[in-house]
Amino acid sequence: MSDELIQIETPFAFNEENQREFNALIGRYPVKEAAMLPTLHLAQRQAGYITPAVMKYVAEQLEVSVMKVKDVVTFYPMFFEEPVGEYVIRVCHTLPCALRDCKGVLEHLKAKLDTDIAAETNLAKGTTPDGKFTLMKVECLASCDVAPVIMVNDDLYKNLTPEKIDEIIDNL
Amino acid sequence: MVEERRILYEHLDVPDINTFDVFRQYDGYTRFEKAITEYQPEDIAKMVMDSGLKGRGGAGFSTGLKWSFVPRDIKPCYLCCNADESEPGTFSNRYVLEKNPHLLIEGILICCYAMGIETTYVYIRGEFTLGKKMLDAAIKEAYEKGYLGKDIRGTGLNIDIYTHPGAGAYICGEETGLIESLEGKRGQPRNKPPFPAVEGVFGKPTVVQNVETLCNLPFIVGNGVEWYTQMGPTYADTRANPPTPDPNTGTKLYCISGDVNEPGVYELDLGLTCSELIEVAGGLRGEEVKAVIPGGSSAPILTHYELDTRLDFTSLTLAKSMLGSGGIIVMNETRNIVDCLLNIMKFYAHESCGQCTPCRWGTPWVRDIVQRIADGDGRKSTMTRPKFGVAENGRWGDTGETEEIYEDLDLLESVANNIANVDTMTWNTICVFGIAVSWPAVSYLRKFRPEFEAAIREGKLVTLPVAEATVPPEENYAYQQRFIPKEFADL
Predict the structure, then answer these.
(1) DSSP 3-state percent helix, strand, coil across chain A (nearest 5)
(2) Nearest-angstrom CA–CA distance, B149 and B143
(3) What is the CATH number of domain B247-334?
(4) Cβ contact B184–A62 (<8 Å)
(5) DSSP B81-115
(6) Distances, alpha carbon B288 to alpha carbons B247, B331, B466, B472, in Å
(7) Tens digit of pLDDT for each residue in A43-98?
(8) What's the predicted TM-score (pTM) here?
(9) DSSP B302
């Protein structure tokens, strides 16, 4: 990625609160690069998704190359390189949830939100036109005893039924 | 019926146990105080060795032995607590983090004291936002109360704990993958040796322990080795002469999910049987057990013939499966094994880190074969071949009969075995992810072959009755070397 490409994006910088948190983070590790994941989490929380400008900023802060940041961002499924909805709905579809009908949950959500399921390289596919929701499938969320489960942003919802899903979505 | 024995989970449901004051009322931090006042660090390491505690994360490696590999003269040394709980079917760490984070901190403190460690990183999977929040709050409180930080309780100990969030990659639960991820890189596992105990995070000696393992430490120190070793069976390893003790001591947080009436975490002594555990978990939901996955989705499946298998490290290894992280998934007679394997293979194809070629290409290949079979497009040859099995002389060989050739099933087994060979237990990948893929693939196929054959023959998924779907043990060479250990053999 050339510098020119990055220039056309809106530049990114941490706001005051995140800068403070970042300063605390950096002191925890003997090398700055190690703060990569928490820093990217912070940046994503602020920017919504990881733009090239964010990568450039994070690379400068951690004193590594932009390519190294890109390397990490593409590896981890929790970092988005495309815009996502205000609410990201993660539906677990691994075996224990599948045994408790997670397919029904997915179908119900698809119908309710009138959207498809996001592909990892095409998040827009699962995002509602108003930009409110993004529906995606994820692997095990480690809550198999209360399956089927979904995560809406940071919150976990358990033992789902169609009625419960309606209630959750309507309250957002 | 087997009784639950709650030790790690004893105070889990006490209101506000996540706060320092309430935790303190329930003996919180007294075990750590006992450790620093009554014992030298070497004593603690010896106690852990004598207790026979095995790592609860999956490999079941002796914790005391692991500690003994750490060179004492290289500083700094790090502790990485593995809270990247992502094995399908496992969910016990989540409750510890969310409800009783101080117990984990106490365990970490004892480990740090024993090993002379000053810095601990708790690698929490990114999805555990609540768990991270609770642990962060507990750590803050522990700093305020003087149990973390500089010169703890006036002993001159300096211990810091930091939480480090993951970002949704399963492979970061592998210890060297975790270390790479902690260093801010892609979580691609490293070659071993050097083992993390010698060269781990930031090139320094590193102890990597699961949350559950660390939570056992306060109780070993608090109640003594003798109390701890009473729980769970100790077998004799007869491969050595004289036989060496093979302890499976302590309790295990069994996570049971799938087709049972009351799924959840049950803390029980190691060594109960599969059917006993199903009974504890409110019994089966359905008519009949078809299959049980004993240790997270990576573990080879058990059939209804094997429900008497004891769920401990040794017995399951001898049954050619593993206890792993203790995630037990039960399936009843309505489940289709091909469909279940497809689900698991989609998981592994998604989670392969892409570092080693056999795994990067093999996992999607296996997934595609199973997908093809599930879609009804499985391939079958028109030719036949001699059938191998238990021959007339009672030994494995040509039975004199012929069998049909299901090309896709042969291909499935071949591809899986070339990622990692389940018979010789050798893997063509850097980490054990390879074996975690081929174990389920090959064991499901060998043990439930009729269901795979039926899917190919009929051109659609067919769920056979349990008795028909399962290959009897005597006809299956996956069982051939199966050996049931003697209970509590005399030493």
Answers:
(1) 50, 10, 40
(2) 6
(3) 3.10.20.600
(4) yes
(5) EEE---STT--HHHHHHHH-HHHHHHHHHHHHHHH
(6) 33, 9, 8, 16
(7) 999 999 999 999 999 999 999 999 999 999 999 999 999 999 999 999 999 999 99
(8) 0.93
(9) E
DSSP string, A11-23: P----HHHHHHHH
Asked, as a colleague might, if the bond just before B101 is cis with ω within 30 of 0, I would say no
Q: In which band, very low, low, confident or very high, does the pLDDT at B490 lie, cut at 50, 70 and 90?
A: very low
User: What is the helix (H) or strand (E) element at residue B44, kind and residue range?
Assistant: helix B41-51
| Stretch B134-163: mean pLDDT | 95
Q: Does residue A78 belong to the interface with chain B, where contact is any CB pair within 8 Å?
A: yes
Span(s) in chain A for CATH 3.40.30.10: 87-170
Question: Comparing C-alpha atoms, which of B197, B190, B128, B188 is closest to residue B163?
Answer: B128
Instruction: Spell out the residues 6+ positions from residue B144 whose beta carbon is closer than 8 angstroms to its own.
Output: none
Q: Do B344 and A41 lie within an 8 Å CB cutoff?
A: no
Q: Give the model's confidence band at B94: pLDDT under 50 very low, under 70 low, under 90 confident, else very high.
A: very high
Q: Indicate the pairing of strand B302-303 with strand B289-293.
A: antiparallel
Q: Which of A76, A98, A147 sits opposite B168 (nearest CB)?
A: A76
Write the residue in A31, A139, A143 that is nearest to B347 by C-beta. Answer: A139
Instruction: Tell me the two tokens of residue A78.
Output: 């929790």
Match domain A3-75 to its CATH number in 3.30.420, 2.40.50, 1.10.540, 1.10.10: 1.10.10
Asked whether the predicted pLDDT for residue B142 surpasses 50, the reply is yes
Compute the 3-state secondary structure of chain B and give helix, strand, coil in percent, each to the nearest 5.
40, 20, 40
Task: For domain B20-230, say whether CATH 3.40.190.10 is its number.
Answer: no
Flag whether residue A14 sits within 8 Å of chain B, measured between CB atoms: no
Residues 169-228 in B contacting A (C-alpha not used; CB under 8 Å): 169-170, 181-187, 202
Q: Does A71 touch chain B (CB under 8 A)?
A: yes
CB contact under 8 Å between A76 and B297, yes or no, is no
Is A79 in CB contact (< 8 Å) with chain B?
A: yes
Residue of B nearest to A151 (CA): B127
Q: What are the chain A neighbours of B169 within 8 Å (beta carbons)?
A: 75-77
Number of Cβ pairs < 8 A linking chain A and chain B: 140
Q: Is A143 within 8 Å of A92 (Cβ atoms)?
A: yes
**pLDDT band at B485, cuts 50/70/90?**
very low
Q: Do B127 and A98 touch (CB under 8 A)?
A: no
Gap between the Cα atoms of B480 and B473, Å rounded: 8
Look at B127 and A141 and tell me if their CB atoms are within 8 Å. yes
In chain B, domain spans: 20-230, 247-334, 337-462
A75 touches chain B (CB under 8 A): yes
Architecture of domain B337-462: Up-down Bundle (1.20)
Beta bridge partners of B302: B292
- Taking CB atoms and an 8 Å limit, are B164 and A38 in contact across chains? yes
CA distance B338 to B463: 9
C-alpha to C-alpha distance for A28 and B304, rounded to whole angstroms: 50
Helices B211-223 & B41-51 angle (0-180, nearest 10): 110
Q: Which of A37, A41, A89, A100 to mutate to test the interface with B (most CBs of B within 10 A)?
A: A37
Provide the CATH number for the domain formed by A87-170 in this structure: 3.40.30.10
